[in-house]
Design brief:
The complex is a heterodimer of chains A (772) and B (88). Chain A is built from 20 helices and 30 strands. Chain A is an alpha+beta fold and 772 residues long. In chain A, helix 7 crosses helix 8, helix 10 runs parallel beside helix 11 and helix 15 packs parallel to helix 16. Chain A is globular. The two termini of chain A are 34 Å apart. The mean pLDDT of chain A is 95. Classes of the chains: A alpha+beta (772), B alpha+beta (88). At the A-B interface, strand 5, strand 6, helix 3, strand 11 and helix 10 of A face strand 5, strand 6 and strand 7 of B.
Chain lengths: 772, 88
């Protein structure tokens, strides 16, 4: 057992810069408040926009009268859905596998014929002041035909449920997306997609089992909870050029989606990425940008729209409410013989829940010979869901890991030992088909079982320890970077990934490592869509992998050019020149050497600037595993759960900047704990969110959490120059189940419906929970 | 010959077979040849000469970034899975 340390890095390879903890490049701006976020944009003549939103969860729009609003002095433009081009339901891939149905994307920005959730935008206006805009909003008159709504996915699947989309039908198979093409006919339904995965012989597998355990878990929609609200400022010039300033998780994705909704060429739009105050998947799509752009076109002036907190809750994309059933069979020795999972994911008003990753992650940690996974993507009258940190995986693993915990309890097995016996390794075939490449699950389990936390007995009444594991696939995508050598030997680095969690410093560290200079000698910045090559969104824990790699290659390009330049200067062959530790040297003639700084000063007189660039789309992101251990105490009188200790172990491949990795782990745990204990969208029966403020939507604060201990395991990802794996998402996967298992250990009762708020825990204790 | 794993919901097209050996040096060729063996496969996997939106190709355990153009070895294993992106 290793000595206890709150944060540990089990490093397997050392570098000069990679793996160190340099100061972040944006530290001063962030701590002094000078960093510019979306809502900080102010342009000359700028108008203030507001959005008219539906008070009903489901209604047909009979008419909209904007004349009174437009007549109010100071109002410069009013738009409705009718002002936008009517788009086909054709699906397009907008990168990283994300699907866009053009019509649905447009109608989610602004409704045309029907409103499908409370808060659904149906008109927007721009005025000379916020007050006038507010006043004018009330003058827009809308005549609705209110329709019955459906707020639960299981209800929405029933035959007589209210139908949201007349053109929606269930499609099965890998390309499922749930929309009829323009020339297809079919019965409408709320089930947009049906996925199925099968391996082995399920019946035979369950017949071989000595013990079969089944659990069903339920989660409600939760929001990513980013601090910065959505804000977009658009300027549509007379020549048709459009500039959009906003914070998002991908300036190129905002450009593409805005172009689709507005039906203009992407080349007409420039998106300038502002600093982002949190996204967690929720800022991958457009909401305000096309509205602000069209208002600008109509008014001839720049228009800014910023959401209120209530609008963020009611009109952006939380994650799915879910209903997941898992059944697992094991031998008396704890070997899994079969497993079955059924997932129902609520997509909100339009198809596209994170069902696919939910299905692909739910049983991924285990080697299961006989299994069946089935999933349903279901629309309901709630905001269209968006990605949220490891989208789909936390509620899926909640169900699976609760079952595993119950098996361990019944077999009286050590929970880590059970996972070691059944855990996935390199070459394990996933239930969904592919073989795992080199993964670090066994090393994660070893580090967890070695940890002081796991080896310290938990004493005291009403206390319990929970263990859970999680998997996330990690993503990749196109990325671009450009490194310019400055005359003083520093490097200006332009890259395309919006910086969430310190990624610009991680990008800079890749360059610094290659060039043998400190990270502080790199000046990284995130380019707009006209300044840097295409880069896919900051999502899927992909940035350190793909953009880091692009920066690595751009630095290699710089290195090659500097070697060429030195060879020219010394009149020798390039092969005779080497670059090491920021020095260019002749391999045999020791008299010939020059530092990067001295060489940089001579660039313009030896051929001109040196700019290295790289664009790539690498494969091999490498999935990541995590194991979490948590101790809780449950107040038997109130049901309040207090977290006594939390340890998160995770394979990072290679932690480029360990402090950021630790921050990602701790942040993921904090969000997972909130999801487990407190957070939820509470709707009335007719679809009104009852808690659209941070007073009533209860996210954990520092007072609710202990210091979260971290262990970074490093099993290098063979697909990356420094072995990095994505780190941002997998830490939110295990906490839901870890908390559920700890509460069960403390009380002897299962609470399978999240959030496990005091009332539910108390009821479980008093009434026997789910019967155990 | 590359081995193609048939998605569960498409096995009605392959007479229930969960994997088949198919000639082809890239994913496009494999789909074309798969369709010759089991008509209808191409329609489920491709659209307008491109991979159907929302489908990920997994080759030898790794998600392909080249899709139809991904080169295959004789011993390659090919899977077609729903893309991970939640998307709109």
């Amino acid at each position: 057992m290793a000595d206890y340390q709150p944060n540990t890095v089990l490093s397997t390879k050392e570098y000069n810069v990679v793996g160190t903890r340099p100061e972040r490049h944006d530290a001063l701006e962030k701590v002094t408040g000078s960093a510019k976020y979306g809502a900080d944009v102010h342009l000359p003549g700028m108008l203030h926009g507001r959005v008219k939103r539906s008070p009903h969860a489901h209604a047909r729009i009979k008419s909209i009268d904007t004349s009174k609003a437009l007549a109010l002095p100071g109002v410069k433009a009013v738009i409705t859905g009718a002002d936008f081009p009517r788009l086909s339901t054709r699906l397009i891939d907008v990168g990283e596998g994300a699907l866009s149905n053009r019509a649905f994307m447009s109608e989610n920005c602004i409704a045309r014929d029907k409103v499908l959730y409370k808060g659904h935008a149906l008109a927007a206006l721009a005025a000379t002041s916020q007050d006038i805009a507010d006043q004018a909003l009330d003058l827009i008159e809308v005549d609705y035909e209110v329709l019955p709504s459906v707020m639960d996915g299981r209800e929405a699947m029933k035959p007589n449920s209210p139908i949201l989309h007349e053109r929606l039908t269930t499609k099965g198979g890998p390309g499922a997306a749930g929309t009829l093409s323009d020339d297809e006919v079919g019965e409408p339904t709320n089930v947009a997609a049906h996925y199925e995965y099968a391996t082995g012989d399920l019946k035979k597998g369950f017949a071989e089992a000595d013990l079969i355990v089944e659990e069903e878990t339920h989660t409600k929609a939760v929001h990513q909870g980013y601090i910065e609200p959505h804000s977009a400022t658009a300027e549509w010039l007379p020549n048709g050029e459009i500039t959009i300033r906003c914070s998002s998780q991908g300036q190129f994705q905002i450009r593409e989606q805005s172009a689709l909704v507005l039906d203009v060429p992407v080349s007409k739009i420039k998106v300038i990425q502002m600093e982002i105050g949190g996204g967690f998947g929720g800022k991958l799509g457009v909401y305000l940008e096309p509205l602000a752009a069209l208002l600008s076109k109509r008014s001839g002036l720049p228009v800014k729209i910023t959401m209120s907190r209530a609008e963020v809750f009611e009109a952006t994309g939380p994650t799915s409410g879910t209903h997941v059933k898992v059944k697992m069979g094991v031998t008396k020795d704890g070997l899994i013989t079969a497993a079955e999972a059924i997932l129902v994911y609520e997509a909100g008003a339009y198809p596209g829940s994170p069902l696919s990753p939910g299905c692909q992650c739910i049983l991924a940690p285990y080697n299961i010979p006989n299994a069946h996974i089935e999933g349903f993507d279901v629309v309901i009258n709630a905001p269209k869901v968006q990605a949220y940190r490891a989208p789909g995986a936390p509620p899926a693993e909640l169900a699976a890991e609760v079952v595993v915990d119950e098996i361990c309890r019944k077999l009286d097995m050590d929970p880590i030992e059970f996972r070691r016996i059944n855990g996935a390794k390199e070459g394990t075939r996933r239930v969904t088909g592919p073989l795992f490449p080199r993964i670090g699950f066994m090393e994660v389990l070893q580090a967890a079982s070695d940890h002081d936390h796991y080896n310290t007995p938990l004493e005291g009444s009403n206390r319990g320890r929970g263990v859970a594991v999680g998997f996330w696939t990690n993503g990749t995508g196109p990325a671009s970077a450009m490194a310019s050598v400055n005359p003083d030997g520093t490097i200006s680095l332009m890259e395309g990934s919006p910086d969430i969690g310190g990624t610009r410093t991680v990008a800079a560290m890749h360059v610094a490592e290659v060039l043998g200079i400190p990270s502080s000698d790199i000046k990284p910045q995130v380019g707009d869509t006209d300044s840097v090559g295409y880069t896919s969104s900051t999502g899927g824990s992909s940035v350190a992998f793909k953009t880091g790699w692009a920066c690595y290659e751009a630095a290699q390009d710089v290195k090659r050019q500097l070697i060429r330049r030195a060879a020219m200067l010394w009149e020798v062959d390039e092969e005779d020149v080497e670059y090491k530790d920021a020095m260019l040297s002749h391999r045999s003639d020791t008299a010939l050497s020059i530092s990067l700084k001295d060489m940089a000063a001579q660039l313009n007189s030896t051929g001109g600037p040196v700019v290295g660039s790289a664009s790539l789309n690498p494969r091999g992101a490498g999935g990541a595993f995590a194991a979490h251990i948590v101790d809780v105490e449950v107040d038997p009188d109130t049901g309040k759960v207090t977290i006594l200790r939390y340890t998160a172990v995770q394979d990072a491949g290679k932690a480029i900047h360990p402090t950021y990795v630790e921050g990602q782990i701790q942040g993921g745990v904090a969000q997972g704990v909130g999801w487990a204990l407190n957070e939820a969208y509470y709707f009335t029966g007719d679809g009104h969110m009852m808690n659209p403020t941070y007073l009533d939507y209860r996210m954990p604060t520092s007072l609710d959490l202990p210091m979260i201990d971290t262990v970074i395991v490093e099993v290098p990802n063979e697909g990356h120059p420094y072995g990095a794996r994505g780190v941002g998402e997998v830490p939110i996967v295990p906490p839901l189940a870890a908390m559920a298992n700890a509460i069960c250990a403390a009380t002897g009762h299962r609470v399978n419906e999240l959030p496990m708020s005091p009332d539910k825990v108390l009821a479980a204790v008093k009434n026997g929970g789910n019967g155990r | 010959m590359p081995e193609v794993w048939i998605p569960t919901l498409m096995r009605s097209l392959s007479a229930g077979q969960d994997r088949v050996q198919v000639e082809g040096s890239n994913v496009r060729q494999v789909i074309e040849n798969l369709d010759k063996q089991f008509p209808g496969m191409k329609q489920r996997l491709m659209e307008d000469g491109r991979l159907m939106p929302g489908i990920s190709v997994i080759v030898d355990g790794q998600q392909s970034q080249l899709g139809l153009l991904e080169r295959l070895e004789q011993a390659s294993e090919v899977h077609f899975l729903p893309a991970i992106g939640g998307g709109l």
